[in-house]
Amino acid sequence: MIAGLILAAGESSRMGQDKALLIYQGRTFLETIVATLHKAGIERVAAVLGHHAEQILQAVKLEGVETVINRDYVRGQTSSLQAGLRALESPSLEAIMLCLVDHPLVSVETVRALIASFRERGTHVVIPIFRNQRGHPVVISRTLFEELLRLSPDEGADTVIRKYRDATQFVEVDDQGILLDVDDSEAYRRLSET
């Protein structure tokens, strides 16, 4: 089984409001990502919340989603990844599809392509590419979970992923959404105009 893991615990300081609650085409970013994962066939999805977790839980429809509250979210994204990995742990878990809440426009087709590549190749990591640029989400095999769980707060997942470049599958996709990082109010304004 591949589970979806959405990181949505940060303070969104550059945005000035919680990215999980930003609206795009009538749905919050968080709801949009959950819907994409479910449509692509990922049945088990967890969302890691932290900053303003209670407000997000009240405002967002998260049926069929396991919510994980990271009380240490101020320690950074790695702490949220680790909280999500611990919550999802099960013998049937083969890999996670790691999603960031500020990348809401990834297509269902891209998610399916990444899943198919992981199933066919069995590589440690699967990363989407659009016009020679790496993006998100990323599939990470359970073989890397222990190393990810040992990371210190100041080390990102890339610290581990880079070590396995030879065991990484890069999948070319026709999806600019993998690069679209809605990280500040200007990026959100541009997105809202599309």
Give your account of this protein's structure.
With about 190 residues, the protein is an alpha/beta fold. The chain has one domain (about 1-190): Alpha-Beta Complex (Spore Coat Polysaccharide Biosynthesis Protein SpsA, Chain A), CATH 3.90.550. It is built from seven helices and ten strands. Strands 1, 4, 5, 6, 7, 8, 9 and 10 form an eight-stranded mixed beta sheet that branches. A two-stranded antiparallel ribbon has the order 2-3. It is globular.
Strand count: 10
Q: Which bin fits the share of residues in helices? A: 25-40%
Distance between the termini: 35 Å
Strand percentage, roughly?
15-25%
- Overall shape: it is globular
CATH architecture: Alpha-Beta Complex
Name the poorly predicted regions: none
Keywords:
194 residues, alpha/beta, eight-stranded mixed β-sheet, 10 strands
Helices, strands, pairings?
Blueprint (H helix, E strand, L loop, with lengths): L1 E7 L14 E2 L2 E2 H11 L5 E5 L3 H7 L5 E5 L7 H12 L6 E6 L7 H14 L3 E6 L2 E2 L3 E4 L3 H5 L8 H4 L6 E5 L12 H8 L2
Parallel strand pairs: 1-4, 1-6, 4-5, 7-10
Antiparallel strand pairs: 2-3, 6-9, 7-8, 7-9
